[in-house]
Amino acid sequence: MTLSSSSGGPDAAGARAAAISVASRARASGWFRSQTSRRLSFGYLLLAPAVLYVLLLVGAPFVFSLYLSLSDANVGDPVATFVGLGNFRAALESDVFYIALQNSIVFTVVGAIFKGLLGTTLAFLLLQPFWGRKFVRGLVVIPFTLPISISVLSWKWMYDSQFSVINWFLSRIGLIGSYGSPDWPVWLGQPHLALAACIIVNVWRTFPFSAIVLLAGFTSVPTEILDAARVDGTSFMQRFRFVVVPMIAPILLIGFLFDTVFTLSDLSIVYLLTQGGPANATKILPVLAYQVGIQAGALGRGAAISLFLFPLLMPLMILLLRNLRRREY
Amino acid sequence: MAGPRTHRQKEIRRHLWIYGLITPYIIIAVFPIYWMAITAFKQDPDLYRMDVFPLWFHLAPTWKHFSYLFTNTNYGAWIINTMVIAAWVAVITLLAAVPAGYALARLRIPGAENLGIAIFMTYLVPAIILFLPLARVVSMLGLQDSWWALVLVYPTITIPFCTWLLMGFFKTVPVEMEEAARVDGCGYLGALVRVVLPVSVPGILTAVIFAFTLSMQDFLYGLAFVAPGDQKPVTVGVPTELIRGDVFFWGSLMAAALMVGLPVAILYNFFLDRFIQGITGGAGK
Amino acid sequence: MSDLRSVQTDPSTLDRRKFLGVAGAGVAGGSLLTMLDARKAPAQVRGTTLRILQWSHFIPAYDAWYDKFAREWGDKNGVKVRVDHIPHLDIPARMAAEFAAGAGHDIIYNGSSILTRLYYKNLVDLTDVADQAGKKYGGWIPAARSLVEVEGRWFGLPIFYILAPMLYRKDLFDASNLKYPDTWELARVAARTLKPKGHPTGIALSQCADANLFWRSMFFSFGGTEADPSGDNPTLDSKELREFLRFAKAIFDEGMTPEVFSWDDASDNRYLASGIACWVHDAISAYRTTEDTNPPVFQSTFLGLEPQGLPGKRVSVAAPNVWMVWKFSKNQQAAKEWLAYLIDNDLEGMVQSRGYNMPYLNDRYKKPMPVIGTDPKLQILQDFPKIVAFYGYPGPSTTPIQEIVNTFIFPDMVTRVCRGKESIEESIKWGVGEYRRVYAKHKRA
Question: pLDDT tens across B50-89, in order?
Fold first, then answer.
């Protein structure tokens, strides 16, 4: 692909930025009388690039995927007929869908709990001054920086039924028997263990990030406020609950929402580890949607499965985000 | 004499406690990385042995898996593509998210709240369906099979998050600073450029780091939009050319992951302090 | 190959250079072009570009050879050829994206998941190429048709399939005086005998291609069928299914370990290479991996024909590989020329792939075949074309079958049985119900 034909995106963005500055200069010369209208038009100009980008590239395709979920489209036949909620009904007819829904929820909730626990405790530890802190901090963020499609493969190898290095250790310290004995865990083969194994990878990858976000939150709380609270005779937990948490709540919430949505829609971990097996024990909604909609080509039903959580998540997110926006911080 | 010694002892004890407590975290985080590293240097027959200590070499370590990457695949090009894509994504994200975040945080626009929420909502749209209509867009723009397609698409993931991140950040910049600047005849833009942006560097850096890491997490878009071997980003190139049918090139896979992950980790660490400042808007401190 | 030049339209421009540039759009009046550039045939394709999407083959050297081979053909014919590689499992996503975009490669490859029936309205009819190759090389093997034929036309060109023979440890069998696994019953006896000695067997019972392929081989060899010959109706529910599932449960209980629930396509390779397995049923990648990593085990590993289920009944479900040409391709002419040329040279492909690629044309099976004909252990592979079958046997690769394969219903049913938490009848009820549900949905559509 040549440079000339392909630089549309960034150039367009640059042009927009240029347009903003030109326009604002024009305004400065007195096009608008009132302060408010100046502020507003400036504001809309500033918003335009982000809103346009997202609207054009996600909004329009989103409408398209809504249409898909209400039609009997398949990947090779774009001329589809309207089937109403037929695809959603079809999803509800299949027990695999319920399994996937349940697994998705377990995956997200359990993952969030562990990310929260590990992240918070690690953040507290990293808050203490100690020798080598920066080095330790550097080590623990590595999981977050590796491309997920590749680091999952490393876990796949560690979970191997035969050559699992985890089992090797467990076996050496006597927690499990040797290879071939009945208590040798088959990580990706036992239903609950397999789901746990997928969650572990998700937690492993993201808890350093939670820790860093929390650490940032803690450091941002002015020491004077904490000292004042301490003088008032509050306990550590009280200080944490009533002083620290409210102050860092906005960023925590954004991080939490972002991570939840990503976890709910993430295909790669489960797809690369088990494809949803054995016997759907680790099937989650995005994997099922991908297999039905893309690999088997039933686009309409795939779209319905992947959009299933949308009506549930949207009001929840609106509620949380509104609450967050109103909060003065 | 006794005073400093007990102080030192206390310090040592405190350190031992902290090291003791933090070691499990380090092991959890780093062990898989170590395992990747040792796998990357092992000869293949050395991988399939359970009778010996698996965390060390039993045959001489080898560079074979690394050299395979550079002689038999386009690994060099993939790395460069990834970095260039990430850089462009960061630039586009900033150009869109900085003004938007500022406008939403400061300019009291009617409907700003709903607009901001709408931007965040885009995350709910599943990529597994989104990639089909996007394929159409990519091809209409003539970007198909070039990594520029990913430069176009990845900001849809980074812009919403960074807008909200920066929105929180701009709110912490004291309003008085801006007003003072405007009184001095700067205008809104002038106040933004001369006053707000300079104190917002940590926040902006945070957004950059985010854009960088997020653009290295995608697989599906890369797979669907970029097929030529020399145009792939490393996240797509590695799994697509080192997994062959039912044969995994473990050594090279791990080598490839490390060579892209570790430099980013170091870079990350370099910015971590500013990042920590930026993420909660430490400008006031 | 002049009969290939059947697509005719008027060139819309008189500028020769430009005309040549778009000639591959299938826009060529043959005679005019021959006049313009008579030096080298096929003239229509000169100056065009051909983009091919290929999988990442087991053997890296095969990909290197293929790319070079295609480029050289291109140089000879004045066509610029570009070959891209992605894993076969990711091809459906890529194909969906290309179709949605209406642009991408000219020639697209399908492996395992054969999507002809989903896309045939948008694929070029390759019947002429297929007929010609069939005439030239003694006809296609029977299974080929089921992959690509829709309403009597061929919308894809089968190029090779990947076999999964029995791979057994002769040393272990001999030491316990066991007969070689020529029937599934003998394979079961061997596993039962050798498992206590630390040498179980394994067939993946997870959601992976191996599980889809190999349990079906066993089921079909026990006389079962998945659909009727028309492909319109599922025929899973049968006496044979019950017999097969009872046998599957027995062979799992007696000869396997729960490891198989976690396996992916590569696990049985390692099982063999590590010297544990007494036998595995897998593509010869298992054999090659062992050759590279464990020479002593490799020495005593031998290959067997697909075991019989019912006496004399052998059905081997193989992973098919098929080429298709998009209708939106601007270079259908060159695409056809290249595919015809590729078929002419499929034996060379067999050599370069170290015997993985099994051809679909009868004449190719004249013994000795390259690579596998000269290796005494691999010779047996030459006898597979008569028993090879694909998903949906004995019917074609229909869209419901694609969904059933991609959502792993068949191996899941076997997994339920082998886990032993529910009765065989309960598992059958579930599996048959899922088959019906999928078929009903596709009928509705």
Answer: 677 777 888 888 888 898 888 888 899 999 999 899 999 9
> What does the block give as tokens for A134?
């920066």
DSSP C361: B
What span, in angstroms and rounded, lies between the C-alpha atoms of C432 and C421?
Answer: 18
CB contact under 8 A, A296 and C261: no
Rg (CA), chain A: 25
CB atoms within 10 A of CB C276: 22
Tokens of B59: 């045959």
CA distance C328 to C123: 8
The pLDDT value given to residue A99? 94
**Averaged pLDDT, B101-130:** 83
Residue A79 lies in a domain: no
Cα distance between residue C247 and residue A287, in whole Å? 31
Sort strands C48-55 and C301-304 into parallel, antiparallel or unpaired. unpaired
For CA atoms B61, B67, B69, B72, the dihedral sign is: negative
- Is residue A115 within 8 A of residue A258, CB to CB? The reply is no
Question: Which residues of chain C have a CB within 8 Å of the CB of A304?
Answer: none
Q: At C291, which CATH number?
A: 3.40.190.10
Same-domain pairing of A287 and A319: yes
B74 DSSP assignment: -
Q: Which amino acid is at B249?
A: F
Cα–Cα dist C179/C187, whole Å: 9
The pLDDT of residue C21 is above 50: no
Residues C147 and C194 in one domain: no
- C130: helix, strand or coil: helix
Q: What average pLDDT does the segment B186-207 reach?
A: 79
Please check whether residue C371 lies inside any domain of the structure.
no
C-alpha span between C193 and C182 (Å, rounded): 16
In a domain, A80, yes or no: no
Per-residue b/e over C221-243, b at no fewer than 16 CB within 10 Å? bbbbbbbeeebeebbbebebbeb
Kind and range of the H or E run holding B243: strand B243-244
Are the Cβ atoms of A147 and B28 closer than 8 angstroms?
no
Question: Which amino acid, residue C9?
Answer: T
Q: Is it the case that residue A252 has pLDDT exceeding 70?
A: yes
Q: Please write down the HEC assignment for all residues of A207-227.
A: HHHHHHHHHHHHHHCCHHHHH
CA angle B216, B219, B221 (to 5 degrees): 105
Which of A241-245, C91-95, C271-275, C426-430 has the largest mean confidence?
Answer: C426-430
Whether C118 and C216 share a structural domain:
no
In a domain, C373, yes or no: no
For residue A76, give how far its alpha carbon lies from the nearest alpha carbon of chain B (Å).
Answer: 12
Q: For residues C242 and C302, give the distance between their C-alpha atoms in angstroms, rounded to a whole number.
A: 31
- Is the pLDDT at C16 greater than 90, yes or no? no
Residues A150-185 as b or e (16 or more Cβ within 10 Å = b): bbbbbbbbbbbbbbbbbbbebbeeeebeebeeeebb
Which of C155, C207, C421, C436 best probes binding to A when mutated, by most A CB atoms within 10 angstroms? C207
Nearest by CB: B100 against A49, A140, A318? A49
Whether B41 contacts B65, CB under 8 Å: yes
Determine whether the interchain pair B128/A158 forms a contact, defined as Cβ–Cβ distance below 8 Å: no
Q: What is the pLDDT of residues C173-194, one digit of tens each?
A: 999 999 999 999 999 999 999 9
Determine the Cα–Cα distance for residues C50 and C30; give it in Å rounded to an integer: 19
Distance CA C267, CA C113 (A): 21
Domain count, chain A: 2
Token output for A90: 């079809």
**Residue of B244, B249, B252 to mutate when probing chain C, most C C-beta within 10 A:** B244
Class of domain B81-284: mainly alpha
Global pTM exceeds 0.90? no
> Does the complex come out with an ipTM higher than 0.95?
no
If asked whether residues A154 and A238 sit together in one domain, one would say: yes
Is the same domain home to A44 and A94?
A: no
